[in-house]
Design brief:
Length: 497
């Protein structure tokens, strides 16, 4: 029977970085992936003459050589920076609330604040105070929490303790009046999947801070280039990958990992498993309830499966400027009532908010000459889709897509006439390709108690560690970095044995 130091289940961002870090540390590692390519969400696919980016709209945490963000260090240590080119965006986003406001915000902190003050002059002072708070709050969160200050206290980090767990809405309400202004500032709520009334202030604050300090990025050649590069580094360091090979069981005896069984019936001996699959599938299906302490299920029962996504991928037979697409990142919303927009993500009624990304605006080689591509995404939970009978699935999907395109037409007239290629993904598509419950793209809903400050990568099963969105929170930066944490937890355990 084959034996490896570690078996990694799943080649999403977290699984890939865990596997590469462990292989670089000299461990023998087998990576099992049920799909035929590496990346999980971080992949691409081809239709006609277009290669479509599946997931990445804006990469956070990169920064520049001069002002390196936390992700840059992780990717440099892995050797990724020698293999992949990252493309910086100069603006955070254009956000259009139909019939209310149309504003583009710079990714430069001072410019962004001035732009908001110029557009909402009556709130100049409140805007200044709010962004001072965001800035100082984030500095305290970075020093106290991210850097792990052992002397963290309410006295030393008063802003952090006062505001971290308040809702974003509550904190905006303290400083700002105009609901349109608040909707503009909260535009990134979609990246966390919760509206400002339910989103902890720390999440909105760190999004605004991180994207302005370290800028939003995209990846030359799509996020598949990044996933391929990490897989390549893993192989160069002696790792082995099996594609089209799902893990079926994690074998556990007396509370300890002893091996893994694949869907093909192979048994692999190992003392360590890093799971990039969901916590739910790992405990309930791969291990089995009989081997998991009941306390673990009790803890998970307080969490809810997070949002999936509905995405329209289009290849257009024109340049972005021909349609007036001047920004890479364009949010389009039909309402400033973000609670209502969130409620819609749990129904099949017309979506009220969406994001249209056009990578060709910042990267002119992204699509074939004379063309461009867009990804139009809106948050969607799986439940309503699971009740659509198979015979009505295609009609429902295209009707839903039509409703989104109608909104897009209001901002970019003539858009539909330029569509050469189109593909649509629903939460069912994400369930199929990721294997996660509800096709969740960010793991559990990111309520404060489920945020990465409270969910460790380790588990009550000795030798089982997690990497990815279900423990780290969703998004490229947290999941790519979570692989390193998982690998370090394994290496520490090996040293202490
Ligand atoms: C449409 C869309 C847009 C997004 N936009 C952004 C964005 O702009 N910025 C951002 O930061 N994030 C974005 N995200 C979120 C981000 O892509 C994800 O949170 C992140 O990639 C998840 O990484 P992960 O490590 O959790 O693994 P996942 O991507 O969830 O991959 C898990 C992997 O495990 C494999 N697997 C599961 N079970 C098994 C098994 N039993 N055996 C073997 N393999 C298994 C799956 O096949 C998959 O490859 C977006 C996601 C989507 C879908």
């Amino acid at each position: 029977m084959a034996r490896y130091d570690v078996v990694v289940i799943g080649a999403g961002n977290g699984g890939l970085t865990a596997a590469a870090t462990l292989a670089k540390a000299g461990r023998s590692v087998l990576l099992l992936e049920r799909h035929n390519i590496p990346g999980g969400c971080a992949t691409s696919f081809c239709r006609g003459r277009f290669e479509f980016e599946v997931a990445l709209h804006q990469l956070s945490g990169m920064g520049s050589d001069a002002m390196a963000g936390p992700l840059r260090g992780t990717l440099r240590d892995l050797g990724v920076l020698d293999k992949v080119e990252f493309v910086q965006m100069d603006t955070l986003y254009r956000t259009v609330y139909l019939d209310a406001v149309d504003i583009t915000l710079s990714a430069d902190w001072a410019k962004m604040v001035t732009q908001l003050q110029d557009r909402f002059p009556k709130e100049k002072e409140g805007i200044g105070k709010f962004f001072d708070l965001v800035h100082n709050f984030c500095l305290q969160m970075i020093s106290g929490v991210f850097m792990g200050d052992p002397a963290i206290s309410r006295e030393k980090y008063p802003l952090y303790f006062k505001y971290a767990f308040k809702s974003s809405q509550e904190v905006m309400d303290e400083f700002l009046v105009d609901p349109v202004l608040k909707a503009v500032i909260a535009t990134y709520w979609g990246y966390m999947g919760l509206p400002p009334s339910q989103l902890a202030f720390m999440h909105l604050a760190i999004l605004l801070f991180a994207y302005t300090q370290f800028k939003p990025f995209h990846i030359k050649g799509s996020s598949q280039a990044l996933s391929n590069a990490i897989a390549e580094i893993f192989l160069e360091n002696g790792g082995e990958i099996r594609f089209n090979c799902a893990a079926k069981r994690i074998l556990v005896r007396d509370g300890k990992v002893t091996g893994v069984e694949t869907e093909e019936g192979d048994r692999i001996d190992t003392d360590y498993v890093v799971s990039n699959a969901s916590l739910i599938a790992t405990y309930a299906e791969l291990i089995g309830a009989e081997n998991v302490p009941a306390e673990q299920f009790r803890m998970m029962s307080g969490s809810t499966v997070g949002t999936s996504a509905f995405v329209i991928f289009t290849g257009l037979d024109c340049k972005p400027a021909d349609l007036g697409i001047m920004e890479t990142t364009n949010f389009i919303s039909a309402t400033i009532d973000l609670d209502l927009a969130f409620a819609r993500t749990k129904t099949l009624d017309p979506p009220l908010t969406m994001l249209l990304s056009c990578y060709d605006v910042t990267d002119r080689d992204f699509s074939p000459p004379g063309t461009c591509q867009t990804a139009i995404v809106t948050g969607q939970y799986a439940e309503p889709w699971l009740s659509v009978p198979p015979s009505q699935y295609a009609d429902t999907k295209y009707r839903y897509a039509e409703q989104m395109l109608a909104l897009v037409e209001r901002v970019f007239p003539g858009y539909r006439d330029r569509v050469e290629e189109m593909e649509v993904a629903t939460p069912i598509t994400h369930m199929r390709y990721l294997g996660h419950p509800g096709g969740a793209i960010y793991g559990f809903n990111q309520y404060t108690k489920d945020s990465r400050f409270f969910v460790p990568p380790t588990s009550p099963i000795q030798g089982l560690v997690f990497a990815g969105a279900w423990v780290a929170g969703g998004g490229y930066q947290p999941t790519l970095m979570s692989g390193g944490s998982a690998a370090r937890a394994v290496l520490k355990s090996v040293r202490n044995r």
